[in-house]
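Researcher: Here's a chain I'd like modeled. Treat it as a single chain, no partners, no ligands.
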Amino acid sequence: MNIYEFAIDFEQENRDYYQKCAEQTKDENLKRIFNYLTEEEKKHERIVKQLMKEESVGEIESDILPKVKKVFNDIVENISINTEEPPQEDISVYRKAVEMERSSYEFYKSKAEELDDSSIKDNFLKLAKEEKRHEIIMDNIVEHLERPLNWIEDAEFNHLEAY
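Model: Modeled as a single isolated chain. Structure tokens:
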């Protein structure tokens, strides 16, 4: 299996996982985030297929961070007005997603270092950056589910802006 096929498999696995998470969560805000991530993984798969066919690749950087920041702000707003406990989620599912994104990041970064073609190398580094953003998003979700009161206090989500 070449690096493109491996990357496509990675992206499909991640996409399927996020789709499953979106279907299983009871939280509508988390569902929105998982649907965004599903679309991101579809986009990455399409990009890798274009690279494999030596086709030109469009913009890789996405607009997911502002979308997710809006969802996180909606969560804070809803928690502030709603005295009910948020639905309980299986945190291990989200921790697995953090690991998947970390693995994707490491894959693209390490493969970029091995490549001679500067264009493909650059695109792999951009994909690595996107996967790192996904990891940060999933870390925020885990933090929100583990420590909702502390998480609310950090309503600015500055660590989303870091990447």
